[in-house]
Amino acid sequence: MNYEFWTDLIRDQDLKGAKTIVDTHDWITLNEFYNNKNLDLGKRFGEEINNLSFYDKVVTISQDEYFIFKSFLGDKVINIPPSFPENF
Questions:
Q1: Are the beta carbons of 68 and 48 closer than 8 angstroms?
Q2: pLDDT of 72
Q3: What is the residue-wise DSSP string for 2-50?
Q4: Rounded to whole angstroms, how far apart are CA atoms 2 and 59?
Q5: Computed from CA positions of residues 51, 5, 68, 32, in that sequence, does the dihedral angle turn out positive or negative?
Q6: 72-82: per-residue pLDDT in tens?
């Protein structure tokens, strides 16, 4: 899965033992907050963690996401950083 907010598309499906993986290339709660300063951060972050907990593996690309999600979800979180150097 590409976005955690699509989780309900598969949550109640019979996946026949398939492994579920989500790619968290963006920390959705933070991105949504940038666009909506009235967002209830606690509620939305709780929804994000709940959705991510559904998956067998949560793949992060940033150290920040890895640290935060691993703190809540444990060993199901793995970090695969970009293979190219940052260029800011």
A1: no
A2: 97
A3: --GGGGGGTTTS--TT---EEEESS-HHHHHHHH-TT--HHHHHHHHHH
A4: 10
A5: negative
A6: 999 999 999 88
